[in-house]
């Protein structure tokens, strides 16, 4: 009996040791990573409409690192390239701080017109001034904005001077100093961007190439969504199969495209292309399995010019899966793919810590493939504007919040701690059972 009671004690000590090592490893790794990783971020060019709600200037392209410190922003009617220039706003634009919706932690910097500082304390790292255009703002009005991040304890005064020249060194990717542009476009201007779809039918076991003709007054992002057409049974929910995938996508004469390799009923944008101004043709190929259910399909193309809100140009087309079996009739009647609106964060972007659900037998995986762009076209670096995206910018890049930046370390540390605690609980129950047996005998 001594052996029976002694073994649990040894294992009990091992459980405590595992818990302690796990907690220590997490603390050490977290501290080391926080000190070694500088904060970088990416601003995006913004397109807003007159008369809309004020919009945040927070980094729309993501924040990388633990952003504990101060953001310093500058807004001007002229490019931010002259440290001695006075910063003034163009007619029709205004900046608000301390007004809620993410700007409550911001204030105008005394003695520096057009410069604003915002406290950044994880997980609230997206504080920023708000920019707005009045009803009287003219189409084509342009302003410039820049940002510098200052770590806790750093020199905000140096950042105030530095942000005034943040446009001097254009950045291709995340850096610690960024600048971008704000453009006002009226609904009439946006509507000059037009789309036309050509969507032939898709036979079972075959492929079909469909096209979108884009007349782009502005550079933008073309997105394609697929769904069961009005009056047809609804598609089965992903990851159930509908038997059709996008096989490729390309833009000509310039532009870059990507597509997911999961099926057309995936809850995400299926194809997306970054296009320059001008006339472009986007061609994409759909491939069907040999065994295919017949459907009438709605395809919706949206050309995203506006950063927020509704009003982007759209076009719809319909085509058929020419299947080997009729569409089921027991499903609810579908409606066409709903007209989409560009994400409308009237508040600052809300970072989220990625969740890690337990795997299931039918776990869904959405993968992405890139199609090389023609020579001279923009690089295909924008990730999927997906409905399944983790926290971050509208292009799917992961935006670190300071909390999710440590998620892998945190998960490992907690796994060790939880392992030790589970050992403690199990042995406690085992010893209790053993005592009851001894008392019974």
TrEMBL record:
Region (Disordered): 323-404
Keywords: Membrane, Signal, Transmembrane, Transmembrane helix
Listed Pro residues bias regions: 346-357
Keyword Transmembrane helix among record annotations: yes
Biased composition regions of type Low complexity, renumbered to the chain: 323-345, 358-387
Keyword Transmembrane helix in annotation: yes
Signal peptide positions on this chain: 1-29
Residue stretches spanning the membrane: 410-428
Protein name: LPXTG-motif cell wall-anchored protein
Organism: Kitasatospora cineracea
